[in-house]
């Protein structure tokens, strides 16, 4: 049972982003902007708000833009200062200063489990969080998961109830509820709707205990030689115990084109500097479309 406080986050960002081609042919999908910030920045800000200030990003080929984004931009900062654009200068510097960010490459695309396993040397024997940057969260799910981990000392999965026809796109969890807590009893990776043990999808937030690394090493590679994180978590169910944290709202899948557009619209509407004019524009578009 882990009693150590979680301070580290791992963000896998080595995927090819094929669902957003051709936009992702020459730039990382994690750098696609949602309003005026790249998707991966939202994940890092979320981790920092939850008290995680040591962040490891798992990258791959053609991901240099991620490192550049979180590095100092001396020439840009100098020009902004010279032109008196102090608000923009503050925003640019905050990107670099908000956390200690480290990088390691996943040499081959061998699945999420493999990507998480690469973090072993950095994480060591501590519990840690995993945030998938495609999942943009606008509710304090990670904070709730950390609280549950602090109570149980076990791994915690974020769970969201989805429509039955959506289950084949996710890992799926079977759970028992007792004393207000969800104990995960089974996990299945992308089951057919008729074979799913529930309609609780495993969403891209995890608090994992370090014994997951030994489990990852024991996973038998599946289709395409990929090592699934779900398979490693399944090994922990009886050996160590896994809990679920259920939430109901505030999540956008920015790896899905329609949800990406929805996130852009709703986050823009929530902005004081953009919301009023943008809302008026959308109202005019809706009026024209209804004619």
Detailed description of the structure:
The protein has 291 residues and is of the alpha/beta class. The chain folds into two domains: 8-255, Spore Coat Polysaccharide Biosynthesis Protein SpsA, Chain A (Alpha-Beta Complex); 256-291, no CATH class. It is 37% helix and 24% strand. It has eleven helices and 13 strands. α3 (74-82) runs antiparallel to α4 and α8 packs across α9 (229-239). The chain is globular. The mean pLDDT is 92.
Neighbour order of strands in the largest sheet: 8-11-9-10-12
β-strand percent reads 15-25%
Number of E-type strands: 13
Number of helices: 11
Shape: globular
- What separation lies between the terminal Cα atoms? 62 Å
Q: Report the structural category.
A: alpha/beta
Largest β-sheet summary: 5 strands, mixed, barrel
**CATH topology call of the largest domain:** Spore Coat Polysaccharide Biosynthesis Protein SpsA, Chain A
The named CATH superfamily of the largest domain: Spore Coat Polysaccharide Biosynthesis Protein SpsA, Chain A
Give the helix/strand layout.
Blueprint: E1 8-12, E2 33-34, E3 37-38, H1 39-49, E4 54-59, H2 64-69, H3 74-82, H4 86-97, E5 100-105, H5 112-117, H6 120-123, E6 128-131, E7 135-137, H7 141-152, E8 155-161, E9 171-178, E10 181-189, E11 200-208, H8 212-218, H9 229-239, E12 242-247, E13 251-253, H10 257-269, H11 275-290
Parallel strand pairs: 1-4, 1-6, 4-5, 8-12
Antiparallel strand pairs: 2-3, 6-11, 7-13, 8-11, 9-10, 9-11, 10-12
Helix pairs in contact: 3-4, 8-9
């Amino acid at each position: 049972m882990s009693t150590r406080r979680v301070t580290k986050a791992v963000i896998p960002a080595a995927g090819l982003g094929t669902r957003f081609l051709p936009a992702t042919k020459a730039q990382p999908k994690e750098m696609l902007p949602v309003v005026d910030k790249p998707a991966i920045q939202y994940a890092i800000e979320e981790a920092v708000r939850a008290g995680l200030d040591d962040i490891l990003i798992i990258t791959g080929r053609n991901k240099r833009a991620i490192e550049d984004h979180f590095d100092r931009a001396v020439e840009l900062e100098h020009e902004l200062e010279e032109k008196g654009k102090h608000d923009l200068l503050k925003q640019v510097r905050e990107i670099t200063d908000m956390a200690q960010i480290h990088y390691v490459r996943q040499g081959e695309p061998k699945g999420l489990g493999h990507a998480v396993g690469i973090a072993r040397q950095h994480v060591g024997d501590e519990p840690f969080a995993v945030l998938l940057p495609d999942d943009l969260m606008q509710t304090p799910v990670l904070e709730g998961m950390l609280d549950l981990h602090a109570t149980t000392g076990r791994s915690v999965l974020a769970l969201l109830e989805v429509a039955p026809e959506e289950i084949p796109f996710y890992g799926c969890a079977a759970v028992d509820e007792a004393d207000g807590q969800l104990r995960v009893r089974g996990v299945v990776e992308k089951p057919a709707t008729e074979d799913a043990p529930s309609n609780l999808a495993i969403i891209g937030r995890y608090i994992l205990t370090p014994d997951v690394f030994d489990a990852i090493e024991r996973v038998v590679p599946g289709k395409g030689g990929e090592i699934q994180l779900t398979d490693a978590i399944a090994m922990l169910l009886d050996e160590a115990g896994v809990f679920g944290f259920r939430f109901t709202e505030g999540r956008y899948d920015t790896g899905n084109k329609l949800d990406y557009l929805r996130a852009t619209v709703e986050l823009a509407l929530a902005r004081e500097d953009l919301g009023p004019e943008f809302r008026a524009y959308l109202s005019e578009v809706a009026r024209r479309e209804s004619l």
